[in-house]
Every structure is written in C-alpha cells, then in structure tokens.
User: Fold this.
Amino acid sequence: MPYNLPGKRSQEGWEADLKYVVTGRSSVAESVPLVIERGEGVYFWDADGNRYLDFSAGILTASTGHCHPHVIKRLQEQVPLLWHVYAFPTPQRARLCEMLTEHLPPQIDTFCFYTGGSETIEAATRACSSYRKAYLFASMTHGYHGRTLISRSLGPSLLNKVYGPTVNVCHLPYPYCYRCPLKLQYPSCGLACIELADDLLQGSGHEPLAALIFEPIAGAGGVLVPPPGAWQRLVEICRKREMLIIADEVLTGVGRTGKFMAIEHFGVQPDVMTFGKGLGSGFPIMCLAGRRDIISSYPFGEVGEGGASTSYGGNPLGAAAALGTLEAMFAEHMIENAARLGEEIRARLTPWVEKYRVVGDVRGLGLLWGIELVTDKTSKEPYPAWGWEQIYHDCLNNGVRLVPNRICPPLNITSAQLHQGLDVIEATIQALEKKPA
Ligand code: PMP
Assistant:
C-alpha cells in the first residue's frame, strides 16, 4: 500500500521547523514535508514510522549506509577522548592519511581537511594559485563546484544579477555526447569539443592560467560520463600551457563509481584532488589532496594569513568517522560491490531508452547513474520539471527516496535491494508515460 505522505507527525514536525528554518534548502526535501528520525544501512524512517530505501545515500554522503556499526565504533572510541583542539596532529588523522595514500595515485601525497565541499574547492584554487603564482582558472560548462564566490564562478552561474559578479573563469564545453555542443557524433567528431578548448584557452585573455578544474563525471550537471579519450586530450592541452589539473571528486570520489576515485576510469593523472561526500559516511569531513610541492607552496603551505588552516578541518571526530568509513568500505568490499552493481544497473536501464517514450538517455558508472527524461526523442526536448517531481513523489510514497534524475544508493546496497528500488522507479516511469507531457 502506498504511504499517502506526509504522515501526521511529519506534518506537525515540519510546521514546527519551518517557523525557524530557512526555506530554499532543497527542492525535493521541501516538496513533501517529511521529518526523518533514524537511519540504518540502506534505509531510513520518518517520524510516522514509514521506511524508505535511500537511493541517494543522504546526498551521496552515506557511502557505507546510515549508522554503519564500524563507523559508530570508531566514533564511540573517539567521543570520550577528544573532540577538537584545532590543528594538532592526532593518531586518527595520521592513520587516515596513511590509508588514503595507499589508495590514491602516488603523486597525491599531501592532505588538508575541511568540512564542506565549496570550502575545499576554494582551498584547492588557493593552493594552485600559490604554486603557479596565477589566479585564473578554467572549468567545464556543466560542472558544479559549490556556492561560494570562486566555486560558484567555476560552474554556470545563474544568479549574478542578485549575488553580484563572479570571478573570471574560462568555461570549456563539457563533452556531453547526448546533447553535443557542436551537434556532432562520437567518435567521428574526433573530440572536436575538446579540441576547441585549445582555442578557447588561447583566446580567453586569461593567461597565465593556474589550473583546470573538472569533475571526472559531472554529477549535479546530470551524470555526464565523458567519451573515451576526452579527458586525456583535455589534460594534454592544459599541460601544454603549464596549467595544473584539479579533479573535483567531491561527488564521484571514495568508491562511488566502482573505483576509489572516478579519475582512475580515465587514465589521467591529476595534480590536486578534492573529495569527501562519502568520506565520513555522513559525518562532515572533506579532503584536499595533492602533490606535496603544490600543497606546501607559499603562501598556502605556510603558517599565516594565506595558509591552509580552517577551524574544524581534520578534527579528531571527523578523522575517526573517515577512518571507520574506509575500514568498513575495504573490509566489506563495497567498491567492488559498486562496480558489479553498476553493470546490473546498466543491463537493467539500457533497454528503458527503447522501451519508454520519455527516457531519452541513461548513463553512469558504479553506483552513480542518471536518467534523462525528454518529451520527444527526436528533438530531445527536456521533460518539464514536474515529470521528476511526479516520479520523486511516487517513489517516496512507495518507499524509495531519490535525488531526481539520479540513482546513487549506499555502496553496500545488495542486488535484491537495488532491483526493488529500480522496480519502483520503473513503475513510476510507466505511470508518467500515461500522462501527456
Ligand atoms: N563539488 C562537487 C563536485 C559537488 O557535487 C559539490 C556539492 N554537490 C560541491 C563541490 C560543493 O559541496 P558543498 O555543497 O559541500 O559545499
């Protein structure tokens, strides 16, 4: 039986909360007033006792599921010992760095920790500017890097009229094959959109450029998986200009795509990486990692006004949560699970493009998948926003919680749970097909 949301207790809790808390937090969280009370593994429960399969892992944060027993254990060990004394080393942080270096490319050997993604991106730009003595950046049109001044400038910025001008960034076309910016087809296009980057960088008047920042798979931009060779060629073009390469893996990192870092799928070597949505299983810890010569360059790598420091970065509780997360993830082979289930999703979703009038494209890797809805397959007219709202509501009422257009459950979901969730999504797509767009 569908839930008929919201339940009474959720409704009451929501009204009490709304008196005090800002609206505009999240379009989906606000469209059905739910109060969430507890989570365990791949499920969470609302205040009325309804259970949901979490197909978005928090917001790609609950990588090991909600309240994983080993992460709880690590946190419980740390809670009575020490919460925070600023930047002093702790055994947990040292062990965390050791573990990270075992799984990251060998040149990535120096770390700074933060609590949010935007803050980490800002720090990455400061580190690269320190090293290159240049402050202009290139990024990709469909990237999302955050909401602070530099991070929002790196993405397509829609709110300059309200928030004021962004900083100067050279935006390069994302190799988005389903909607090719040049209306060409891969591979006969010869990666023409990437070749354009050379001219755009040359003509941008932005030189010297400090770095290129890009998401190996654009997440918020619609789960855009680039065609083979695209990142290799782009990196080659940027290296010719001595630009550094920053892989923003805030969303794609820590096992999400079936490798520890998504960049491993594409055969390029970044100089700097940002990651961490899944690093603390939902506990706020993010990481900037990079080549030692970059991260320790002046002023970023030195004590003082321009340094890497922040109030809470790398605090003992965050480090304990991250250590617990990595230990659980490796002990339980969650990254392999993500890779294997990614192929099950591919096999299940690919036929939907033929089968359903409204499914224009499906794409993804590991446990990060996107579904693009259209009103017409030939014109590729995007489906109006209410299409996903409808799917979101129907899924929720049937016990599955989504981020619209994405499938990104915890990395320890089982095949049976995954297919239960996909059954619900498929039924909601079938229901949508019956309505006029
Ligand atoms: N980079 C990427 C790739 C992201 O997906 C996000 C957030 N979705 C950010 C940076 C910004 O992170 P935060 O919301 O924690 O500031």
Observations:
- Residues 69-331 form a domain with the Aspartate Aminotransferase; domain 2 fold (CATH 3.40.640.10).
